[in-house]
Design goal:
This protein is an all-beta fold and about 130 residues long. Helix content is about 0%, strand content about 50%. The protein is globular. The termini are far apart.
């Protein structure tokens, strides 16, 4: 079955940058949409960004548009999220997800936990 493994989280000051990685181990995700979601303490999980299998199309939540950049390297089975100009409200656990679905203007995470990584904590101090 394989798994998705996130890395790159940490603590950063407001205005700083971090890059998250999501590596597929024992599986490939070349031909599906991949995405990032996040969940802050006491809040529901929310969509952050998604990328088509070719990388030619990307989608972002309004809250991160212009600051975050999603990308992927299918040859390495790895997806990235470059996070710039970080704000305290970006503090959350970030999850990569395989094959999220969009209905209308809203993105939904896959219900099967096998399609999720374990999460990577991002903390932004003011």
């Amino acid at each position: 079955q394989g798994q998705l493994v996130e890395s790159g989280g940490g603590l950063v000051q407001a205005g700083g940058s971090l890059r998250l990685s999501c590596a597929a181990s024992g599986r490939t995700f070349s031909y599906v949409v991949m995405g990032w979601f996040r969940q802050a303490p006491g809040k529901e999980r929310e969509f952050v960004a998604a990328i088509s299998w070719s990388g030619g199309s990307t989608w972002y939540a309004d809250s991160v548009k212009g600051r975050f950049i999603i990308s992927r390297d299918n040859a390495k089975n790895t997806m990235y999220l470059q996070m710039n100009s970080l704000k305290p409200e970006d503090t959350a656990v970030y999850y990569c997800a395989e094959d999220p679905r969009r209905y209308g203007n809203k993105w939904y995470a896959p219900p099967n936990p096998d399609y999720w990584g374990q999460g990577s904590q991002v903390a932004v101090s003011s």
